Amino acid sequence: MKRLLMVSTLIFSCSTYQCAAQETQDAPFAATAPLAQGNDEEDVYRAALRALADGRVEEAAALLQRVVVAEPRHAGAWLDLAITQCELGHSAEAERLFSSLQQRFALPDGIIETIARYRATGCGKKVVRKGGAWLMAATRGRDDNVNQGASDPRFTLGSGGFLTEYELDPTFLPKGDNFSQLAVSNVRPLGSTGVSAIFQAYSRWHDTISSQDTASALAAVERTWKPGAWQLRGTAAVGYVTLDRTLYQRQQQLQLRASPPWTMPKNTDFAFSGNLSRVEYPTRPAYDGTMAELGGIFGYRGKRSLTQVTLTRLHDDSTDSRPGGDRNGWFGGVQWYGEATSQVALEGGLNWQNWRSQTLYSPGLIETRRRQNTATLRTAASWRFRPHYSVVMEWRATFNRENISLFQYNSHALQLSLRWDNF
Description:
- The chain is α+β, with helices and mostly antiparallel strands and about 425 residues long.
- Helix content is about 20%, strand content about 50%.
- It is built from seven helices and 18 strands.
- Helix 3 (about 55-70) runs antiparallel to helix 4 (about 75-85).
- The longest helix has 15 residues, at about 1-15.
């Protein structure tokens, strides 16, 4: 549903553009119930944007109709409603709304280009309602450390006055390689109950180092609902990962995202997030663990951008035989998405993760508690050269800093993808 998120960002920006309203006639939705006395149409508009972000397109359309009835000069709601009707495959209704929007408002060039782009698609997304929203991507890239080889070839083992320095075998040092990757995902609504099925899969293989080839598959069920004034989204997922064509990891996961009914500053939103996951390693059962996460997500929408800040507390409950025992930590992230033009989008992000083990890593050999700090930088640019087709260039760098030199590593990857979405 990434495209819907981008759409809501664009749409939200129209109201902040302060599109100059011309003289308007009566709203065309006379049969739609108006807002209750005392309700704020901006609250309903924000609820519609959240519904779009969650993939509840038909619910968003109903909310947007209420907004344009209550406030016919709300340019953002008009544009959002027109695009939503286009996304639903209602081409005649979408065209009527696009035409009315252009007659009623003096639109910026960027919005005019957006309308032209949606008209060019023919609003043929009725298929999505039957088969869900699909995304496929084919990628070619290079990583200078595909095996997460140690940055320092020397390491020390022992305790007290009996310390011995060793040098790593070249096998455990960084190795670069080119790679190819295929990915596919599908989000499919299950009726009109707010429940969706999600499927994701990818496969990545390398030109030379086949021992690092990976593949994964994930299946999930997601539901959104509104107890009282809260907005909740729950997800249950199961996933599998292979390494060198051998099952490497099994994962079960429960997630909950809760948006409280708080009055937030304009263009901002906040949600609590919780996650409980069980990870099992069939070939390395000592590393099995159950991880709990609790945190929050803050978002800000600009004219053509979206910024999200995440902070999460982590706890990893391990088996008795895992080196270092249980772990506690933090995760923080800043993500930014913006549109340079109607066809070019930019992204940037910084993630940081910290872990602290509760016991010595390996008494007698590595007598220290493991402390891990990992930072990941990411930038990307995408060019939508045709409806549903994009080229994406992405650069990623990972810096893993630890107090045990065996596990320290750096990696840099550059990749180019051809993406086909919402078909």
